[in-house]
Amino acid sequence: MSKGIDYFNRGHWLTGIQERVSVATRKRMFKVAVSKLGLKAGQKMVDIGTTPDVERRDSNCMLPWFHDLGMSVALASPEDITNLAPVFPFACILPVMGVHHPIAASVREFDLATSSAVLEHCGDRVHQMAHIKECARVADRIFLTTPNRWHWLEFHTKIPLIHWLPKSMHRMCLKRAGLHFWAKEENLNLLSLRQLKELVKEALGNEFEFQIQRVWTLGMPSNLVLLAHRPCLKAP
What we know:
Strand order of the largest sheet: 3-2-1-4-5-9-8
CATH topology: Rossmann fold
Largest sheet: 7 strands, mixed
Distance between the termini: 34 Å
CATH superfamily: Vaccinia Virus protein VP39
């Protein structure tokens, strides 16, 4: 998610409103994760897929919240995020390992792996599953969020309803609208609740217990929130 790629259509007239709504929604998701996963001071977390963007108010907005909770924060991204060092001086920035490569962390190095609005940009089902598996490899808990495909508004293109069409038809519509970037599966692959459940079950197997919650925005469930932990951990 580099500065050269406009993932959120910044020039659109709805962008300012979206940012405010997005921060409020992410705050609610953060509170759910703290409660359900028993997050607390002294634990270590890694954010997988951190964006280098510093323009939008909702970019990486959860990182200071984890820090204020007293958690140790590390950042991992397939992109160069060294520009974030002065923005988040409390965070450890892991070396860049490249797209679809394991992050620079050992097995179960962290108490928590977070992934905020990354899964829909991982590409096809194989790469989406690999992303979930990588979260599970490095941490005992997972907090992952992704947009709900069945919300009436598609938040990247700001176009309503057409993403409810079969994916091939949706991508054809995007191409005709000149949105060739979003028409590619590697850039946008939205998931329904059912599809996310299937992915998580296959990716995590019996290693984790999990639940998926829906967070509502603008009248409908807008985000899917994966909360997972190893069975050996005591429930909070």
